[in-house]
């Protein structure tokens, strides 16, 4: 591999049109300091489940942890557990514990609290930059650039115009279209209605934060990526089962991320997702965020609870 590049070198511009600051920075990840290592976070987008979006909690927790370390060290990994459902009607308090501050690595523990009880716990590890000749990575998949693909809103509109679209899909797509999600998505090889029955548990899409973030602090781009990484991630495990089962409960259990190279979260990145296993009312998903120049920037993994309604048999009709 070549020598490390800055995010701007590797992602070649691609700023969203206009100079509107990303709401992810100005609102979602803008925590209110209450005391030393104590912060309050508020909500921007709430899913139709009326539970807090897991990516928001992960991103805000990482913001809180990053405020307790010096500017010259960067996050390299985080490991989280969602222990209770979040309440969208009240803010979240983030309590940071400075577990260890070392010469090369520092660890921070973060607890997210609502109604006096933890809803989420996280360990984040930070590292001072340490160049090494030992480097390798896999190759980025070959895919069309985002400029050649339909945006999510246009794609959904095309699906909704199909007179053969089943009502259950129409309802779900209308819900998605009505959501004000602060990220942009362009699917790679979106499935047609006839392909829904034969899908593999894999998907790829280009993704970036809406609005402008700029060069800024690399740690902030990592916090935005933490928010982005949870969107549509666990649903990868559902792709082979859309036609056989109806999901009535799906939530994240844990979430891990490893940060490999600097990047800009307001520039297009390829999110490659796959689910190698599902069973026992759980699903496992893995993901990789690639810069446009082929550099692997972030790796992710998550397991979640997936409960489906029992199939309707002929004897029950």
UniProtKB/TrEMBL annotation:
This protein's UniProt keywords: Fatty acid metabolism, Hydrolase, Lipid metabolism, Peroxisome, Peroxisome biogenesis, Serine esterase
UniProt catalytic activity: choloyl-CoA + H2O = cholate + CoA + H(+); octadecanoyl-CoA + H2O = octadecanoate + CoA + H(+); dodecanoyl-CoA + H2O = dodecanoate + CoA + H(+); eicosanoyl-CoA + H2O = eicosanoate + CoA + H(+)
E.C. numbers: 3.1.2.1, 3.1.2.11, 3.1.2.2, 3.1.2.27
Major localization listed first in the record, in broad terms: other
Listed InterPro entries: Acyl-CoA_hotdog, Acyl_CoA_thio, HotDog_dom_sf, TesB_ACOT8-like_N, TesB_C
Superkingdom of origin organism: Eukaryota
Acyl-CoA thioesterase 2 C-terminal domain: residues covered: 197-305
CDD domains documented for this protein: Thioesterase_II_repeat1 (cd03444), Thioesterase_II_repeat2 (cd03445)
GO molecular function (one): succinyl-CoA hydrolase activity
Family assignment from sequence similarity: Belongs to the C/M/P thioester hydrolase family.
Quaternary structure and partners: Homodimer.
Function as written in the Swiss-Prot or TrEMBL entry: Catalyzes the hydrolysis of acyl-CoAs into free fatty acids and coenzyme A (CoASH), regulating their respective intracellular levels. Displays no strong substrate specificity with respect to the carboxylic acid moiety of Acyl-CoAs. Hydrolyzes medium length (C2 to C20) straight-chain, saturated and unsaturated acyl-CoAS but is inactive towards substrates with longer aliphatic chains. Moreover, it catalyzes the hydrolysis of CoA esters of bile acids, such as choloyl-CoA and chenodeoxycholoyl-CoA and competes with bile acid CoA:amino acid N-acyltransferase (BAAT).
Full protein name: Acyl-coenzyme A thioesterase 8
